[in-house]
Design a protein that fits this description.
The protein is mainly alpha-helical and 109 residues long. It has helices at residues 2-8, 12-23, 27-44, 50-57, 61-72, 76-81, 85-99, and strands at residues 103-104, 107-108.
Length: 109
């Protein structure tokens, strides 16, 4: 959220309200959702960066599983074994981001 506040020049509260208005759930829920979806796709593709991502966003393996199931309705194994349009699209997006990293304030994200 801090990066978004800096990029937009809006206050934190304005960004939170805009996020809720345009995307539905509050910004914290969206962050949880996308962290869980990225974790699921990383597990599915056996991504080498998975451990780093899990250390940054989750406290335990069971928490990862619960979050993925909460947001996808599937366990990580089911998500990997039965690809849906959702996980294919997320995988494409992640691959695109890795091929074309965005520079923000000198840092690659």
């Amino acid at each position: 959220m801090n990066d978004l506040v800096a990029l937009t020049g809006l206050s934190l509260r304005q960004v939170q309200r805009g996020c809720k208005r345009y995307f539905g759930p509050p910004s914290k829920v969206l962050a949880r959702k996308y962290r869980a979806l990225r974790g699921a796709v990383a597990m599915m593709h056996r991504d080498p960066e998975l451990n780093e991502m899990l250390e940054e966003g989750f406290y335990s393996q069971s928490r990862v599983t619960r979050e993925i199931k909460h947001f996808t309705g599937m366990t990580p194994r089911a998500f990997a074994e039965h690809p849906t349009g959702l996980n294919r699209e997320i995988a494409k997006r992640i691959a695109l981001e890795r091929e074309n990293p965005i520079r923000r304030n000198g840092a690659i994200t």
